[in-house]
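Two entries, shown back to back:
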Amino acid sequence: MEEFHKVRRLPPYVFEQVNRLKASARSRGADIIDLGMGNPDLPTPKAIVDKLCEVVRDPRTHRYSSSRGIPGLRRAQAAYYARRFGVKLDPESQVVATLGSKEGFANMAQAITAPGDVILCPNPTYPIHAFGFIMSGGVIRSLQAEPDAGFLAALERGVRHSTPKPLALILNYPSNPTAHVASLDFYREVVAFARKHDIIVLSDLAYSEIYFDGSPPPSVLQVPGAIDIAVEFTSMSKTFSMPGWRMGFAVGNERLIAALTRVKSYLDYGAFTPIQVAATSALNGDGEDIAEVRGVYHRRRDVMVDAFGRAGWPVPPPAASMFAWAPIPEPFRHLGSLEFSKLLIEHADVAVAPGVGFGEHGDDHVRIALVENEHRIRQAARNIKRFFAASASQPDNVVPLAARR
């Protein structure tokens, strides 16, 4: 039977191949150290859980909630932006709660995209940034991921050579998967360009609070005039270790927020009210929970960079996010990221995310998530060191799975 049109537009899900191999290894009793999915392992702070438990006892909170977020939650998000970025937002018209930033991006794509619309998107990038628009009938024009002069030059080419003119530009800094961080000066140039060419800017700022070196990452909305063209998406998943709670936000331009809000009103009734109340409490907190989470990832980053380096795999230390973007070691680079990731599972009991899953320009890297404790990260490095030694001494015994079929 022929696949449906929207499903046909999606490529095979690369990560599923790794997941199947990982599950198979575990079924045989292997202790897989999973550095693949960016699934935070830290517990949600106790005060947030306590607030959820308190509110959930009230049966009135078990009814349908508000799709765009309860008023107190939207006010809390606006207050967070004022404290953190110095950006003033109207919680009534410029803030909407989403079921995580992923859902926000996908529904924004549904709201604004007509068939054939051109979207400028970094490559590699988090898959929903591209495929949310592809599923909505859009066409992706890839840009480099690094936020530098090359990115701005690619923007110029993207506008000059695209028909029709691009509708929107995707930004994601700190980046998933590359961990690149953008400066406020970079955002100023991008906003000026987008305003000149009447292009919508959609910024994913999910990792704004997970940073290690230098100043805190800025928001594109800090740029004067950005509010006229931009919407920014944030998430509580990583900041507060609340991934399963599915709580995020879109903030910014009133017209774009209204479009997203209208689409959402047909699709969901919002997050469970006790979750929204607990999220409000978290946002209104003193910031100690955020600092604690940041400190854990910082320590894990340092351990990973040191241990993997000693194992013979130099990994550039990420300045932000919960990921490292690691070049495939030279002896394995010809295999590509998917086959190298499979080898790590089979020969080192370590799972990583193949870079090709984030775009074809990521195929010479893998993404390493800091979602295991420091002991497990060191163990992963020891396993990898043994694998590298074995492959050097007996290369015929280390064969990509695809070559055996």
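entry 2 starts here
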Amino acid sequence: MKTIQINAAIFPTVMKIVLGKPLPQDVMEDNTEISRIPDLTIDLPRSAYLTYLQSVASKGTSVELQLLKKYAEGVPFSDEDYNDAIGLILFSGRRNNSYPSTKDLLAPFGICIINNGEKRSISVIDSEENRLRAETWEYILIDILKKSAFEIIECFNFDSTFERTQFDDGDDDKLHYSLMSWRFSFDEAEQSLSNSLRTAFIFTLVGYCYGDNKGNYASFQEYFDTEFYNRVALIYGIWNNRGANNCVQYIPLYDSFHNLNGRNKTDLITIIRAILDDPTVAIDEKQVLKERLIDGAGAIHRGMSAADVVLEQALIKPVVNFVMLREKAKETLASVRLLCTQGHYSDCANRCYYSMMYSLKALLEFNGLLADWKQGELKESETHNALENKLTMLISQGVLTATEGNNFNYVKDQRWKCDYSLYKFGKGEAQNCLQKAEDFYSTVERLTM
């Protein structure tokens, strides 16, 4: 059989074990300080992955072996090859990315030593084969796609807000990245960023097999370049707004929203709001994120199993609805400013009213007071009268002031006059309504921080 040669350096080495056998008696009598001859050197976990691949080659023809040959020979993968290779990394059990805590150093890595007479060799532990397969092919896929992946990562200036706080021998001030699962940096921020990038990378791969977006692309490479870019853009927004703890964590907003289960509503809102307000994040990337929020919420809402209902009510609707209502309020205010500069004053009252209505709904959502979405629609079962009654309730509870209620009613009255009657409404009136709408928005912002 033709030898399959790959670059073993794609697999990490975190420890080395050298096993030896006793020197012959005549050599020992020469008073040498060396008592054993090394006969087996094991680099962990690299040797475990290479041993696994040797076992694949020894078993004969298989889809996995054909993929391995293509990889070794530098033959580009087809879309079907990527689909098959990604299937090999799917494993729900424990992964190995920490030092063993037992006396047996090899078993945690999935291998053992076999004695064949005087010669010892390494063998895969049968029960660990599936895990080794998944980990081995993760590293192969990282190697195949690392050029594309790092070109995407370098599109974002992560380094601009990084200052190394923990140094190891040989460290410099430059920010480094790794897609491998083993810890590579003592700097917590640097390591957390790489962890997030790796998670985004794996989610992107799995999404090709099980996500909803595969059909939108002509090829795997087009899929990967776009979808991984979106995820890295999200991480960049989180990184820029990481706060005092200096670390980041990937949030799977571009993946199944079921993966959000267990997260904190307030923290999630804070992160998304910070990204959407960040002037360093491109408008196109913000728009993609907002579209993904709507798509993800819609996917949950259409499914509506018993578990989906709990997830939607506890997290998805409170987060997505609040964020999107706030965005609509903010964007509507921007349109009012544009209308004012263009002299379209009579349209300003309508847009100011709806900006205030979106702000009110965002405040109600934040406080758990907004009705559920209708069946099959991301739309609350609320009338304008019902919302205005809830505004009155917030004023009576002291959440909002009477002045804010009066401002809302003033803009509402101006909107009715402009929309449904012949009414003189000029620049001064438009600016007055805009100021009241901006003040209302600012109040809601303060109350929902």
